[in-house]
Amino acid sequence: MTEATAILNHSATAPVAHKAVDNTTIVDIEKVVEELKHTKTVGKPLVNDPKFACRNVDVFYNDTKQAIFGVDIDIGKNEVVSMIGPSGCGKSTFLRCLNRMNDTIPSCRVTGSLVLDGEDVYAKEQDPVLLRARVGMVFQKPNPFPKSIYDNVAYGPRLHGLAANRAELDDIVESSLQKAGLFKEVKDRLQSPGTGLSGGQQQRLCIARTIAVSPEVILMDEPTSALDPIATATIEELIDELRQSFTICIVTHSMQQAARISQRTAYFHLGYLVEVNDTKTVFTNPQHQLTENYITGRFG
Ligand SMILES: Nc1ncnc2c1ncn2[C@@H]1O[C@H](COP(=O)(O)OP(=O)(O)OP(=O)(O)O)[C@@H](O)[C@H]1O
């Protein structure tokens, strides 16, 4: 158990002071917003030689609702960054900026700069389909295509012409299933429907499908929230292995999960990026009062 996890476990069993509604726990949202407007993100939002460099990112829905305010953050190579914060604070909205998934929401507008290995993700010449192969995404609910296990994984390589022949495609399918920790369980039924697998297996199939196009970054939006603890543990182990080859950003509601799997953790609040730091620091010595309130369960 990591120190950060131990502290979290302790706070989960500590007296639940946060449940008492008294003057110390009532949050004056307007005051908080006013403060956040004038405060820079604390901790270590930037890294040397980032994979992703995001600067002054704002996101609007319907031009009237601003969901993300001036976010500056780097995502380092081969690191897992967790994004945590209360419901509605903008974690998923920000994650979706990284591979332009927000383009699929007509009312959504993103401004600022998001640079992947020196390339502007929002440049006119950027093809979002190719971008999403480089920056893959795994969703909350496993969403295999209504196709065989084999065809789920082969879908992306076929679309992007990554295999010259059937043998190459077979190799990509097998190695992707291997990396996703699923091959042994499905090798004798590759032609069976992907939807016939258990929830945890389906999520690993979706991870295999993402890996099959050799992405550089994998975005995960609450990838284990629909899974039982055993399937969750399997995916968490997998994330740790995948970090050797990929950069990973994960949105999670589980602080224990963030503590277990990520090197840095980013705390969002009301659309502002309040704090980013080494995961251990965030959970053992948070620098911002709002982060501390959240991790000790005062709100969220
Ligand atoms: N398609 C949309 N249209 C309008 N507003 C939206 C849309 N999607 C999200 N929002 C709003 O943007 C804000 C941020 O939402 P988002 O889903 O990014 O938060 P979140 O932190 O991921 O929340 P949760 O943890 O509950 O999933 C919220 O106020 C939400 O209501």
Automatic annotation (TrEMBL):
<protein>
    <submittedName>
        <fullName>Phosphate ABC transporter ATP-binding protein, PhoT family</fullName>
    </submittedName>
</protein>
<dbReference type="GO" id="GO:0005524">
    <property type="term" value="F:ATP binding"/>
</dbReference>
<dbReference type="Pfam" id="PF00005">
    <property type="entry name" value="ABC_tran"/>
</dbReference>
<dbReference type="InterPro" id="IPR005670">
    <property type="entry name" value="PstB-like"/>
</dbReference>
<keyword id="KW-0547">Nucleotide-binding</keyword>
<dbReference type="GO" id="GO:0005315">
    <property type="term" value="F:phosphate transmembrane transporter activity"/>
</dbReference>
<dbReference type="InterPro" id="IPR003593">
    <property type="entry name" value="AAA+_ATPase"/>
</dbReference>
<feature type="domain" description="ABC transporter">
    <location>
        <begin position="52"/>
        <end position="295"/>
    </location>
</feature>
<dbReference type="InterPro" id="IPR003439">
    <property type="entry name" value="ABC_transporter-like_ATP-bd"/>
</dbReference>
<dbReference type="InterPro" id="IPR017871">
    <property type="entry name" value="ABC_transporter-like_CS"/>
</dbReference>
<keyword id="KW-0592">Phosphate transport</keyword>
<dbReference type="InterPro" id="IPR027417">
    <property type="entry name" value="P-loop_NTPase"/>
</dbReference>
<keyword id="KW-0813">Transport</keyword>
<dbReference type="GO" id="GO:0035435">
    <property type="term" value="P:phosphate ion transmembrane transport"/>
</dbReference>
<keyword id="KW-0067">ATP-binding</keyword>
<dbReference type="GO" id="GO:0016887">
    <property type="term" value="F:ATP hydrolysis activity"/>
</dbReference>
<dbReference type="GO" id="GO:0016020">
    <property type="term" value="C:membrane"/>
</dbReference>
